[in-house]
Each structure stands twice: as C-alpha cells, then as structure tokens.
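Appendix C reproduces, verbatim, an entry submitted by the partner laboratory led by Prof. M.T., so that reviewers can inspect both the input and the predicted structure.
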Amino acid sequence: MSTALAVTCPDHLLAAPDRHTPLAHVLSPPGEQPLDAALAETQGLLERHGHLVTVFPATLPLRHRHRLHTVRSLLESRRIALLPVELPPLATGVLVRQLRQLSLCDFTPGVLGAAARLLTHYLYAGAVLGSVAKLDRVPVGVTSHARSWLPGSRFAVLAAPTPELVRLGTPEADKGLTAPQFATELTVAPGGLAADWALHTLPARWRVGHVHQAPLPRDSADWWGTTRLTEFVAAIPDVSVLYQLVASVRRDECPGCGLELIGDRCAFCAASLPPAPPGAPSASAPPASAPPASAPPVSAASAHSAAPPEPDPPEPAVADPRGIRP
C-alpha cells in the first residue's frame, strides 16, 4: 500500500512537476470540520493507504495542533506521523512536493517519514524583504534593523539551511547569499515587493536550472514579519536524485513499532534507536559507497539533526462521538 501525505493548509500544495505526482490531503482546522468528520476522514485515509505522514508548520495554531494529536490519540494509531517543520511557508510546500514525488517510490512508510527531516537540510529557503524591523526568525543586527526604516531599503534573507542577511544595493550584497553546491531549481512567490532580484539576479548567481513562480502562501507575511516580500526556495528537482539521496542513508528497524527508518528516531512512534556499540557506524551514516555525482553529499548530521517527531501531548478534554475520551 502507498503512504498518504497530508498538510494543514492548501497553500502547501504546490503545482506538481508532472501528472504522476499525487496530491496531499488537506486536514481542516477545528473551526471548519467537526471532530467526528476529522476522525472519519483520517480513518478512511489509513484504510486506503495504510500509513499517513502529516507535515505542518511549527507555527501552526495550538488549537489545530491539538486536533491533529487528538485524532491520532482517539484512533490509537501509530500509523500516523505528525511532523512539524521550522521552514518558511513556501519551503514547507516545496518539501511536501518532494515527499509527494518520493511517495511513488518503493520507500517504506518509516523511511518516507524520516526523509522529511533529511530533505530539510537541502532546501535553500529565503526571501527579499522591504523591512526586517519585525523579523524574528533570522538574526538581525542593529544596523540592519535601523536601515530597514530607510525608504527603498531591501534585504535578501536566507532562513535555511543557515541564516544569512544582506542589504541589497551595498558592497556586501555583491557576494550575495551562500549558493547551493548542487543542482537546483528555484521556486519564487512574488508578494508585495518587486520580484526582479529573486527572478533574475539570484538565479544567475546561484546558476539554477529553471525558475518557477508560485502563489505567495497566506502565512508568509506573518512568518517574515512584513507584507513587502518575495519568497524563494532552491531545491533538488530530480526525483531520481532525491531517491538516491534518501536511499544512501543506512536503515534500521524501529525498536518501538518495527517500522524501517533512517536517522535515530522513528517518525511514527517517536522511539529512539538504542546507542550504537563502541566502534559501530552511526545509525544515520551513509553507506560506504559514495552518493551519485549529481546528488549532494549526505552527512550524519543531516540524517537526524532536525527536530524529531514529538509524542502526543496531554490533550484538552474533548468529547468523542463514540463515548471515548482522549
């Protein structure tokens, strides 16, 4: 059976690169869907696909986050993975698109779920901002903060994989942001700011293969702290490279639920691998053979250093239509 993918916002469903890439399911917030309907929807997904991987932003409202955990708890299912990501909104959509591509491959549910954490390290996510005065997700110096009040100021900001910030139109901007060291394509979402730098200057400097435009996600302004922005993400477009990147990482059996996994923690039950014996290779280390030349190098840190899945927190008291309490 295939593994179903789900998101919590339709903005995270970017256009597919081909007609074979499946869509992800949108799990509605509590205000738009009663609990019994959410339970029935999720149960139907599990019956059709076997497992469900849900990717959602770490900034998801607490009430919606509680709904996800409540459904998982009431269904008493370890076949549901809840994966919060710290990426900007457009990058979250690009990550989901990559997972949608990989869901057609022969990866088991545990490997596909863990692949989400691995692939975040190979997304170059940023934005062009008209102001950084309210930006709190990337370190902003006092000078940049003061200059953001000057008319016409623009800043190029990289949030992942490493935070960077340069003011456009200055000597430091000539160096630009750190470019990916592997083949990528660029997705650009214009907002309330001219997108010329992201559509023309950045692709030339980063030598990206193609540039695609996408609608700006509705939560981008909140994430970046301004409505004057253009968001961009450079990512690996080739599903064969993504496949080899994930396949090159060592696999283990989860001690909690028995699923196959990569990294040091299960995406479904949150169980950790026991410590490796002295001298044994790391659970997240790649195999001895080198990855393909077209793929970025895989490091042990990349396989497991992202935030692990979280166990279900204590849920607020919610009446279950079947008379069961969480």
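The longest strand covers residues 51-57. Additional entries are available on request from the coordinating office.
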